[in-house]
Write a structure and sequence with these properties.
34% helix; two-stranded antiparallel sheet; single chain
């Protein structure tokens, strides 16, 4: 959130996009307005507590933490309809159980955090729209005046779902479109159908216009790979034709990147990785012994386990179970404190941190 009025807390660092001209101004104004509506004195005070404890911890190299999460990610489902080639879910390599989040667990979590937490991300692994209760989750959080965001592969835009997206109060809707031809699109979005996604996006924009609504803000996301980097101009044209609020170019997270993979873009501008002299690859960003995410946010899997961040796909670093523990207790637990301490002292030795872009621009 570095580009928003709520500058101090940087929740929006992950959503800093690039637009030009009037469309950029309109998009940013509406997005900022949406976020400002979520702010309360208590949420602001909580933000100051978290931010100050983060910088004090960096100075003294000791994990000190005050306050509750500023943002939280909750996974609606770990199931997906596609087989994306760089996604653990799509590759069927997740080692944890798969399933859907239920409404009682969701309301239990939200009731514990909404007074201090303003930003809710409703995705992690899986396709959120596959959970039948998804729009109930959004509506419940919206009633608590939380900013709600989700990301979808765009295959579930029926007339009913488009209407529900507006009625539920969803604030931000990210739709992945990683190619402008079926041949290129399906190289990453395996089993996906570009035409269906485009038609769904058009229906979503039409529904929002007919309902005279400004939200959800619709962002077309284009993850840049070697196979689609030549289509950047084409995706810009397509986004304009459909009339989405914003086109976001995003660098791709690639697994086992060290030896190089055919998915890594040739143009280093669009890559998280760079080639060494010996032909191997390394991540472009530096490994600092601190991590804002570990202080201000966390991720909750569909079955209630809390993990430090979204890079822990397999929930290897579970710090608590929210089905039986309070969120406050888990947030202040010894396990999470140990993890934060390790981040401050030896972050590069933590396996989930080695492919992390903390402190690096991933939106182009």
């Amino acid at each position: 959130m570095r580009n928003h009025v709520f500058l101090l807390f940087t929740i929006f660092a992950q959503t800093s996009f690039s637009l030009t001209g009037i469309s950029m101004i309109v998009y940013k104004l509406q997005d900022t307005k949406n976020f400002l509506r979520t702010l309360t004195v208590r949420r602001l005070w909580n933000g100051l507590l978290v931010l100050s404890s983060f910088y004090i911890s960096r100075i003294f190299r000791k994990a000190i933490h005050w306050g509750m999460p500023l943002s939280i990610s909750i996974e609606p489902t770990s199931l997906c309809n596609l087989g994306c080639t760089e996604c653990p879910t799509g590759l069927k390599i997740l080692t944890r159980r798969s399933g859907n989040l239920n409404m009682p667990l969701f309301t239990r979590i939200i009731d514990q955090i909404y007074k201090t937490t303003s930003y809710l991300t409703l995705y992690f692994q899986g396709e959120p729209f596959m959970n039948p209760s998804f729009f109930d989750f959004v509506a419940f959080a919206s009633e608590k005046k939380m900013y709600t965001a989700t990301s979808t592969n765009g295959h579930y835009f029926t007339e009913a779902n488009c209407k529900k997206a507006v009625e539920s109060g969803l604030t931000r809707l990210i739709v992945s479109v990683d190619g402008t031809t079926q041949e290129v699109y399906e190289k990453y979005r395996k089993d996906g159908h570009l035409e269906k996604v485009v038609e769904g996006l058009e229906l979503m924009m039409k529904t929002r216009r007919e309902m005279k609504a400004k939200n959800p803000l619709v962002i077309m996301q284009f993850i840049v790979f070697k196979d689609n980097e030549h289509q950047i101009e084409d995706i810009q044209k397509l986004a304009k034709e459909i009339g989405v609020d914003h086109l976001a170019l995003k660098t791709a997270q690639v697994y086992d990147y060290e030896k190089g993979k055919k998915t890594i873009p040739e143009n280093i501008k669009y890559s998280r990785y760079k080639k060494r002299k010996d032909g191997t690859y390394e991540i472009k960003n530096k490994y600092y012994n601190h991590c804002w995410r570990s202080w201000q946010s966390s991720v909750i899997t569909w079955d209630g386990h809390m993990v430090p961040c979204c890079f822990d796909k397999d929930a290897k670093y579970k710090v608590g179970d929210l089905k039986s523990e309070s969120l406050k207790a888990v947030w202040e637990s010894a396990d999470l404190k140990i993890f934060r301490t390790n981040v401050l002292k030896k972050r590069k030795e933590i396996d989930i941190c080695r492919n992390c872009v903390e402190g690096t621009k991933i939106w182009l």
